[in-house]
């Protein structure tokens, strides 16, 4: 696992897509030091407190004392910014920085001035490229569409995978996955999921297997999205 050093507050903006695995859009991103990171959609009117609670509950549970926030998007978020900073103060969580980023510009929370920012030349972006760990997916929606069921027709490779799954079962297929064969498995089970009909047991099984294979291969963003698909399909499993 690569370690990235934050040298300035704008580095948190560059760090977000690197650790998430995709470029956030219309998002509030939580970044921590030596702990977890999280992303949530910007809240609709009346949902600000629920959004804040969703992010801060795990912060409190895991005794995280320092955090950074980055809002991605040009939505008016003054209410969210003010409430988020106040709630962190109430629970004794230090906010290292809190920024909003849109279209090559950023500003601090509760400030009106926007400053130009070239993320492509940021040292964290360049380090991620050097270590071959750039964000593999442009946005989360693009990634979700990439693995959505019902997109492709069946191939011989998919047929063989489904036949093996039916004979061995999900647990045995997952047990056979290793870090060495994980990337190959990601490609295979992405094809199976895309060829599966939505709202079927096969789509559920393929999403579960893909999630684990993606996690083994180090693609946390894909694992996250695959689990979301599994949760959607679970109602029909």
List the helices and strands and how they pair.
Layout (H helix, E strand, L loop, with lengths): L10 H10 L1 E2 L3 E6 L5 E4 L6 H14 L4 E7 L5 H13 L3 E9 L2 E4 L6 E2 L6 H8 L6 E3 H7 L9 H13 L1 H6 L6 H14 L5 H17 L2 H14 L4
Parallel strand pairs: 1-8, 4-5
Antiparallel strand pairs: 2-3, 2-4, 5-6, 6-7
Helix pairs in contact: 1-4, 2-3, 6-8, 8-9, 9-10
Please explain how this structure is put together:
With 237 residues, the protein is an alpha/beta fold. 49% of the residues lie in helices and 16% in strands. It contains 10 helices and 8 strands. It has a 6-stranded mixed beta sheet with strand order 3-2-4-5-6-7, sandwiched between helices. Strand 5 (94-102) and strand 6 form a beta hairpin.
Condensed summary:
With 237 residues, the chain is of the alpha/beta class. The chain has helices at 11-20, 48-61, 78-90, 123-130, 140-146, 156-168, 170-175, 182-195, 201-217, 220-233; strands spanning 22-23, 27-32, 38-41, 66-72, 94-102, 105-108, 115-116, 137-139.
Keywords:
237 residues; alpha/beta; six-stranded mixed β-sheet; two-stranded parallel sheet; 10 helices; elongated
Quaternary state, please?
single chain
Strand sequence of the main sheet, in spatial order? Answer: 3-2-4-5-6-7
Classify the helix fraction into a percent range. Answer: 40-55%
Strand content: 15-25%
Radius of gyration: 20 Å
């Amino acid at each position: 696992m690569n370690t990235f050093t934050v040298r300035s507050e704008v580095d948190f903006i560059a760090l977000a897509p690197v650790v998430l695995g995709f470029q956030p859009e219309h998002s509030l991103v939580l970044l921590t030091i030596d702990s977890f990171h999280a992303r949530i959609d910007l809240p609709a009117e009346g949902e600000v407190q629920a959004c804040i609670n969703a992010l801060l509950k795990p912060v409190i549970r895991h005794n995280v004392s320092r955090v950074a926030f980055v809002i991605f998007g040009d939505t008016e978020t003054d209410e969210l910014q003010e409430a988020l900073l106040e709630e962190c103060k109430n629970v004794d969580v230090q906010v290292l920085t809190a920024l909003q980023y849109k279209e090559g510009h950023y500003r601090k929370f509760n400030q009106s001035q926007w400053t130009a920012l070239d993320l492509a030349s940021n040292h964290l972006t360049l380090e991620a490229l050097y270590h071959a760990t750039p964000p593999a997916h442009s946005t989360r929606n693009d990634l979700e569409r990439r693995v959505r069921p019902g997109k492709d027709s069946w191939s011989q490779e998919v047929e063989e995978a489904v036949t093996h799954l039916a004979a061995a079962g999900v647990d045995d297929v997952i047990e056979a996955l290793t870090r060495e064969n994980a990337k190959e498995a990601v490609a295979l089970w992405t094809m199976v999921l895309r060829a599966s009909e939505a709202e079927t047991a096969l789509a559920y099984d393929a999403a579960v297997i893909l999630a684990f294979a993606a996690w083994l291969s180090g693609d946390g963003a894909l694992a996250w999205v695959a689990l979301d698909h599994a949760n959607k399909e679970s109602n029909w499993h």
